[in-house]
Amino acid sequence: MTLATSTCTTSCHSAKPQLSLTARLRLHMAAWRQRRQLARLDDRALKDIGVTRAQADAEARGGLWKAPDHWSF
Length: 73
Prior knowledge:
This protein has a domain at 18-60. It has helices spanning 21-40, 43-49, 53-60. By secondary structure, the protein is an all-alpha fold. The longest helix is centred in the middle third of the chain and has 20 residues, at 21-40. It contains 3 helices and no strands.
C-alpha cells in the first residue's frame, strides 16, 4: 500500500467569500425569523423534527448577532 501525502497551500482551499454588510444583515434577519418560528412550534412538531422544547427555547433565545457556525463572514 502506498501512502500519498501532500502539502497543501492556501490555493488548495477555496476562499470564503466576503459578504457585504447588506448580505450579512439579510442572513442575520433570516436567522432571527427562523428562531421566532421555531419558538412557535408545538411539542408535536418539535418531536417530529427531533428537537426538544429546551433545545428550541435555547436556540430561540439566540440574538440577532448570533449566526450559525456554517455561515462565513
